[in-house]
């Protein structure tokens, strides 16, 4: 025991020697890169234009004095770009808080796989980054400084994560999810589209569908909302309909979408969607008080309309040949002929029919009857 | 003298450590080529091996492997066997330690020299391995009480995550009917191998009884399934194979909201650092006892105990030096190959050990008759 105690004391003393490690830099000697943007270079087709949004650490987030710096660098690779940016700043660049990667639209329509691989491979990059397609360019998006921003650069994460705003038009995805979908057979990647629409406003209301490495289609906001209805659970959104020229809007509380793939008869394969929505009435034009059978009529009308629009949206996706909802993976996971199932699926997906059954249930009409 | 429950702790330690280390990587590499069938095969094999071993060691109450071998074999054969077993058991901790140093510099502090990290680990392990067997078991108990609830919470978080893809899991399950292979079986049975520590700890067990075999079966099955399916669900059926540490990447994809730290990986790292260190301490302790036993040191006479305590230092210094030298020239590919070779040899060595114990029982019976 005595030997052990002496040993431990010795170790503790020695460990003091390690404390001022030469490689470690204090927090005031670091600059935190928050978002990386990637664009195509205008002059040189082999080069990319990288933008780094860097936060300058300050004391108090409540004061609202946030400082951030945007550095752009043209380079052939991102590793090279970082080394070049390091010679433009006075402090050590730290990627531990880098939580966003913006692919400029032109770049994303070309091939994102090289940069995407870097974000997963590099050790200090999180797998929890928010990837997005930036319109018109990543640099333009990073230049936007919303005045609501309290901590430098974090408005974009708040919008893309579920922490801040909750909008039915924003698709939530992380870089590990993007990486998974880029390699998975039978499930294709998606990314939200961030648009610099005004000097202080970023609009995020579209989803980009990718094949394994490039953006193929950007859906409209309405289609994005319907896609989100199928993609995530308990989406809070509104749906509107008109009965006899009078407008009714409902707000959804709980939503749930499930599907199965029916392949009983070859040639007549179908993907059957079942969507359940519980909602409350939020807006109506008609000043008359509602009767229970009016509610039934609204429910029936909404169910029919949502069903039709979802079906139209699914058929649009089907025509592009992409599979952002993972039907192919579900087919593979329920069929045991592993050698041939994916070839079968290619043929089936092209001709499959969609049946969408929606059940809207209006639980309450709000404070008024 | 310690009670029965410590035997289950030894098993549980080895099982939990296998959620992260090289075992999931080997199984995931073979996920389309018979990993699931290997798991199915290894559950009866592992349980049977454990059961047989326990039945045999119960015939030698209060004795460790050195005492057993010495009583039934010529001195030099038992010496060689014990030294070989000692080094094999020590070797497993070498892989654990080096891979943990690698994990530390990969995920936690890329800036700190790996040798400082390794020195820290080695000092803790070498000093603690000298403690007597009972203290080590009590320490193990405490660490397990602290870490197992956190591990359970993290498993729950993985499987309840909205980004967990059950379709990917189903896709892998449809590959279950492939032939098992030796490499995967050797990896999967390693979950059970905690019982081997009894070759030394049996000295301090009082009237050791082995009950509730079903607990062992259930826990090991859960461990194996979680270790394979948690990374596959998060990183994808195809994507999981691309990661060096699938379990760490899967945990890095989890986010805890409303907590001091945002990334789950820091908690996970601390948990697994303590488990790895305890695991290494136990392996060093067992390895050291076997090697010293092989050279004929006995632990029951007072004058030889003093001498043994002195020689012990040299063994531990040798152990530390070997780890240090190996870590100098090992890269991640050699490390992975080393793990595979170790697991394959260990499985054969386990079978041999049980055969030797059968021989010992038979010999003693004949002596008595």
TrEMBL record, chain A:
Keywords from UniProt, A to Z, are: Germination, Lipoprotein, Membrane, Palmitate, Signal
Q: Which domain of life is it from?
A: Bacteria
Q: Which GO terms describe its cellular component?
A: membrane
Query: Which InterPro entries does the entry mention?
Result: GerAC_N, Spore_GerAC-like, Spore_GerAC-like_C, Spore_GerAC_C_sf
- Spell out the family assignment given in the record's similarity comment: Belongs to the GerABKC lipoprotein family.
Q: How does it sit in the membrane?
A: Lipid-anchor
From which residue to which does any coiled coil extend? none
Give the Gene3D superfamilies listed for this entry.
Nutrient germinant receptor protein C, domain 3 (3.30.300.210)
A Pfam family of the record is: Spore_GerAC_N
| Spore germination protein N-terminal domain: residues covered | 23-195
Q: Which species is this record about?
A: Paenibacillus solani
Q: What is the lineage of its organism?
A: Bacteria, Bacillati, Bacillota, Bacilli, Bacillales
Supply the name of the protein. Answer: Spore gernimation protein GerC
UniProtKB/TrEMBL annotation, chain B:
Q: Which domain of life is it from?
A: Bacteria
What InterPro entries would the database entry show? Spore_GerAB (IPR004761)
Does the keyword Transmembrane helix belong to this entry? yes
- Kindly list the GO CC terms recorded for this protein: membrane
Please cite one Gene Ontology biological process associated with this protein: spore germination
The record's keywords, sorted A to Z, are: Germination, Membrane, Transmembrane, Transmembrane helix, Transport
Q: Name one Pfam family in it.
A: Spore_permease
- Subcellular location(s) per record: Membrane
Q: Which family does it belong to?
A: Belongs to the amino acid-polyamine-organocation (APC) superfamily. Spore germination protein (SGP) (TC 2.A.3.9) family.
> What PANTHER family does this protein map onto?
SPORE GERMINATION PROTEIN A2
Annotated protein name in UniProt: MFS transporter permease
The species is: Paenibacillus solani
Higher taxonomy: Bacteria, Bacillati, Bacillota, Bacilli, Bacillales
